[in-house]
């Protein structure tokens, strides 16, 4: 049994995806707190905005690893979310710093609902990816 670049990519992806799952859970909890009026929107946006770029960059980095080792299916299941991340960041509100969430518009009911739905969908994609990465890692270790 040899340890190859594909197995390394899946191990890194498992660790990275665990962080992405925590980011998605934090996203859902943060917007639920806003919905139930437990937290100030300015404080919540100040805690969410610094996490946007690290989440996006980590997700893109993991998929660059899959591109480098030729894991096309793993790459293809993540391309729609990467495209959404790029589109979302390009169409963000005008702000002074990096991030997506503007405290003046985050409490609008349509934005709040959209952000909660976005968090749940990202969580589902990251969880499905996590279990697929376990399968891919085991398969790449066994097949070599």
TrEMBL record:
Localization, UniProt: Membrane
GO cellular component: membrane
Entries under PROSITE patterns matching the protein: CORNICHON
UniProtKB keywords: Membrane, Transmembrane, Transmembrane helix
Transmembrane segments: 7-31, 56-87, 123-142
Any one GO BP annotation for this protein: vesicle-mediated transport
Membrane-protein topology: Multi-pass membrane protein
Family: Belongs to the cornichon family.
UniProt-listed PANTHER family: CORNICHON-RELATED
Name of the protein described by the UniProt record: Protein cornichon
């Amino acid at each position: 049994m040899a340890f190859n670049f594909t197995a390394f990519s899946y191990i890194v992806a498992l660790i990275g995806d665990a962080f992405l799952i925590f980011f998605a859970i934090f996203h859902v909890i943060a917007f639920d707190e806003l919905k139930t009026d437990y937290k100030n929107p300015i404080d919540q946006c100040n805690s969410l905005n610094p996490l946007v770029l690290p989440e996006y960059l980590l997700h893109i980095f993991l998929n660059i690893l899959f591109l480098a080792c030729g894991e096309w299916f793993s790459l293809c299941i993540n391309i729609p979310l990467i495209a959404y991340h790029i589109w979302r960041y390009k169409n963000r509100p005008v702000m002074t710093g990096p991030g997506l969430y503007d405290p003046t518009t985050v409490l609008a009911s349509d934005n709040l609902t959209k952000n909660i739905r976005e968090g749940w969908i990202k969580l589902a994609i990251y969880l499905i990816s996590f279990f697929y990465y376990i399968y891919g890692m085991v398969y790449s270790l066994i097949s070599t």
